[in-house]
């Protein structure tokens, strides 16, 4: 450094020119080559997300058997449209059923609720018809009935039979209660005026075991026919009833005879309480049409009636009529013996429904303890009458008899006693007995004795010598008269001829009056016929009573 060196520029020494320094620039760490796998990954992720988002829900369905089902082949259908497919079939852990796993379309994810139903559609032959015939060629499939309400669900218990109704059907369900199910079953038809408007969709025994609840479905618009005054009755089989009105046969259709059925109707009534827009939670299912049409009332009153005559044919359940209207039933019939009078009497306990009687304006008869007393004072009496001469059934008839003896309402064993009057047969028997008593009072023996004595006297008179002498004297007198007539013949012949002419005219007039075609003759002949018929009837009655005296008490038919 101490040597002096003259500075030289680059032109003086080219070999000693300064070297250019490299400029270092940082390059990107990601090469374009890596974009290809990144794009592929992004596409894969997108496809995966898209696949997962479009993939439908997976459900498990439990069936008792997998008959007709195959994994990867069996379809899940809704309205005959494929909406899924069975992916696997396994046996349940308890070996009592099979677990079918199926994958459905994404659109049905919102319709898998606790109300969703699955069942296997296969050929079925039932009493109500044949279904599933299309599966004979296409094979069995799982049918789906989506649910729109309820909690979401992915595990289901499959139905062994198709549901009677699906969610796509418009209508309304009603619950009926009956003492027993009878011949009804799921699918039994429901009729309105012999037209099928619904069917039975379910039934269950009540918790207390006292009745059966039956669910029926009525399709729209027929469900609007049900009101608060609608009555349902069991229309199964053939209903044959024999009553005082005769023999009645009632049936809805041949199908109801085979599988049972239910009918209903809405009653027209003046009852203001029945005209309500509020439907009850349950409807009673009556056994017959007559029972359905008969009104039921909660308010009941019981009365006692005593009868002295026979009540054969009066049974528990026999009707009680007031002015010909059914107002109650007979509850009990007994036979009582009175030791003091040594007589029998028959107490009959009846139950009357006062609400069957309404006052003007459709109002109920108010509860009045003195009402029955006033009715009895006005002549209300009970009487047993024949409901049917064919069956011999009797009923209790309540009516007013103002001419009957005045009576008051008594009490016996806590029941008010309604007075009674004899039956028409008893009244007739009393009249016949009175007639026979009068006949017995006639001295027939004395009359016969007198007639015999009179006949003997006539016979003695006819055969007496005095009568024979009188006849001889009469013959002599007649001979003298003939002689006198011969002498006078020439004198009075013209006058006799005129008299004979007048007599002939008179006889012709009389003959015209009593001829066969004359009114007098016809009236006399009719009178003689009536007298003869009356005499014959009296002889027949007297002869019959002589041979059957018990007919006075029991009548001619029972007397035999």
UniProtKB/TrEMBL annotation:
GO CC annotations on file: plasma membrane
Keywords: Cell inner membrane, Cell membrane, Coiled coil, Membrane, Transmembrane, Transmembrane helix
InterPro entries named among the record's database cross-references: Mce/MlaD, PqiA-PqiB_transport
Chain segments annotated as coiled-coil in the UniProt record: 464-491
Compartments where found: Cell inner membrane
Protein name: MCE family protein
Residue numbers spanned by region Disordered: 1-20
Pfam family, one: MlaD
């Amino acid at each position: 450094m101490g040597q002096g060196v003259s500075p030289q520029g680059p032109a003086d020494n080219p070999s000693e020119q300064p070297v250019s320094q490299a400029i270092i620039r940082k390059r990107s760490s990601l090469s374009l080559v890596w974009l290809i796998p990144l794009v592929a990954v992004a596409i894969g992720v997108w496809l995966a997300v898209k696949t997962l988002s479009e993939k439908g829900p997976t459900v498990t369905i439990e069936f008792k058997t997998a008959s007709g089902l195959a994994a990867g082949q069996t379809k899940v259908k809704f309205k005959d449209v494929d909406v899924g497919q069975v992916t696997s079939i396994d046996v349940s852990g308890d070996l009592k059923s099979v677990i079918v796993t199926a994958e459905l379309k994404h659109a049905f994810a919102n319709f898998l609720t606790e109300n969703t139903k699955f069942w296997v559609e296969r050929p079925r032959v039932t009493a109500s018809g044949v279904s599933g015939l299309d599966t004979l060629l296409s094979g069995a499939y799982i049918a789906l009935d989506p649910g729109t309400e309820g909690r979401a669900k992915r595990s289901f218990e499959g139905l062994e039979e198709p549901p009677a109704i699906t969610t796509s059907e418009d209508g309304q369900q009603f619950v009926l209660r009956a003492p027993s199910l009878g011949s009804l079953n799921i699918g039994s038809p429901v009729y309105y005026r012999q037209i099928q408007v619904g069917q039975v969709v379910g039934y269950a025994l009540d918790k207390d075991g006292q009745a059966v609840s039956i669910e029926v479905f009525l399709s729209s618009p027929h469900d609007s026919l049900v009101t608060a005054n609608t009555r349902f009755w069991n229309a199964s089989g053939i209903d044959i009833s024999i009553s005082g009105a005769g023999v009645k046969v009632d049936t809805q259709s041949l199908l109801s005879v085979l599988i049972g059925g239910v009918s209903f109707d809405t009653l027209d009534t003046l009852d203001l309480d029945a005209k309500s827009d509020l439907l009850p939670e349950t409807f009673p299912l009556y056994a017959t049409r007559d029972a359905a049409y008969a009104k039921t009332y909660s308010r009941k009153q019981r009365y006692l009636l005593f009868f002295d005559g026979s009540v054969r044919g009066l049974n528990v359940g026999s009707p009680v009529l007031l002015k010909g209207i059914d107002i109650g039933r007979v509850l009990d019939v007994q036979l009582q013996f009175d030791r003091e009078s040594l007589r029998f009497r028959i107490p009959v306990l009846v139950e009357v429904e006062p609400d069957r009687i309404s006052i003007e304006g459709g109002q109920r008869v108010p509860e009045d303890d003195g009402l029955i007393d006033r009715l009895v004072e006005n002549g209300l009496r009970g009487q047993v009458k024949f409901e049917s001469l064919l069956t011999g059934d009797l009923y209790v008839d309540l009516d007013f008899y103002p001419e009957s003896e005045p009576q008051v309402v008594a009490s016996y064993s806590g029941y008010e006693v309604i007075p009674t009057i004899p039956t028409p047969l008893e009244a007739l028997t009393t009249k016949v007995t009175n007639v026979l008593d009068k006949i017995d009072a006639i001295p027939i023996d004395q009359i016969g004795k007198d007639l015999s004595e009179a006949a003997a006297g006539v016979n003695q008179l006819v055969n007496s010598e005095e009568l024979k002498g009188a006849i001889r004297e009469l013959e002599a007198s007649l001979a003298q008269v003939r002689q006198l007539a011969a002498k006078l013949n020439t004198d009075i012949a013209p006058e006799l001829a005129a008299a004979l002419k007048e007599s002939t005219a008179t006889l012709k007039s009389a003959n015209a009056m009593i001829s066969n075609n004359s009114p007098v003759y016809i009236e006399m002949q009719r009178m003689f016929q009536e007298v003869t018929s009356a005499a014959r009837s009296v002889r027949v009655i007297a002869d019959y009573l002589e041979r059957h005296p018990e007919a006075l008490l029991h009548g001619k038919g029972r007397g035999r």
